[in-house]
Amino acid sequence: MTKVLCFANNKGGSGKSTTAANVGYSMAEAGKKVLLIDCDMQLNLTLAYFPEEQVIEMAKGDKNLFYAVKNGVELSKVITPTPYKNIDFIPASTLLSGIEFELFTKWQREFILQNLLASTVASGKYDYILLDAPPTLGGWTMNILVASDALIVPVEASPWGLFGLANMLEFVGQVKTVSPGLTLLGVAVTKVDTRKNYFKQTLEALNAQPECKAFTTYIRLDANVEWSEDASKPVGAYKKNARSAEEYRNLTKEIMKRCR
Questions:
Q1: Within a 10 A sphere around the Cβ of 95, how many other Cβ atoms?
Q2: What is the per-residue pLDDT for 226?
Q3: How far apart (Å, rounded) are the C-alpha atoms in residues 57 and 146?
Q4: Which end of the chain has the lower number of beta carbons within 10 A, N or C?
Q5: DSSP 124
Q6: Is 119 left (phi over 0), alpha (psi -120 to 50) or beta?
Q7: What number of other Cβ atoms are within 10 A of residue 103's Cβ?
Q8: Are 63 and 55 in contact (CB under 8 A)?
Q9: Distance of CA 61 to CAs 26, 51, 67, 73, Å?
Q10: Does an H or E element contain 163, and which?
């Protein structure tokens, strides 16, 4: 069965898009068929797979998420292939900045994305569909969570990394009144500098809250991640033996195990 996973955190800079991009690539490496959907008007997930010039063109065209939502087009019609085996993509558009207005005028607006995605999920073509949500808590993020089976919350290992996590979890509780099947798969700690005390404090705080279900694998700071993003590639494609590439593979194994 296709699993729909959402990567969300209402705090910016958490490594959310980077985590989604690299978990998706690691799933494909493991032989899984993956569809990545960029739901954030910042386009970071799209930029992780395509060069900037192509991203700009896709954002202005008729094969992106905003076009599908605005015009009621099934998402299977706006899928774009990537250069990588087992990975397909639905790009974002900067026009998603106005998506809340588009939703406000529609009937049953909490279920719009779920309905547009339904035929793709039912087809069974993909093992995993990964959604990258914007760093906001509103009607659009609710749409994304309602369309998902489970949520992964990336958290930056910094003094402010846990700021807002309580709000995120409270929002998930609100979403579950509409979509009771949504589960928190776990919290993934990113941008780790093991020399800093606040890394240990972050882990201790998460482990003290069993409902956060923190993943064992954490992602350390690695310049290869930045260089891979500059090259518009997942880190595993940019440098297969990079430390961060291996950490993303291990995190992905944990994610897939929890999905089972």
A1: 17
A2: 96
A3: 29
A4: C
A5: T
A6: alpha
A7: 18
A8: no
A9: 29, 16, 8, 14
A10: none
User: CB neighbours of 230 closer than 8 A, spacing ≥ 6?
Assistant: none
| Mean per-residue pLDDT over the chain, rounded | 94
Type of residue numbered 63: K
Which of 12, 25, 4 is CA-nearest to residue 242? 25
If DSSP codes are grouped into helix, strand and coil, which group holds residue 34? strand
pLDDT at 101: 80
Contact 172, 184 (CB under 8 A): yes
- Two structure tokens written together for 240: 């297969």
Q: How much is the pLDDT for 44?
A: 96
Q: Which residue has the tokens 């991009």?
A: 21
* pLDDT for residue 153: 96
Query: What is the predicted pLDDT for the residue at 158?
Result: 81
Report the pLDDT value the prediction gives residue 217, as an integer from 0 to 100: 97
Q: What is the chain's Cα-based Rg? A: 17
Coil, strand, or helix at residue 183? Answer: strand
Buried b (16+ CB within 10 A) or exposed e, 179-216: beebebbbbbbbbbeeeeebbeebeebbeeeeebebbe
Interatomic CA distance for residues 153 and 185, integer angstroms = 8
- Angle CA(187)–CA(29)–CA(41) in degrees, nearest 5? 55
pLDDT by 10-residue block (mean), the chain, 260 residues: 96 92 98 97 97 95 94 96 97 90 76 96 98 93 96 89 87 95 96 88 88 94 97 98 98 97
- Tokens 């990258």 locate to 132
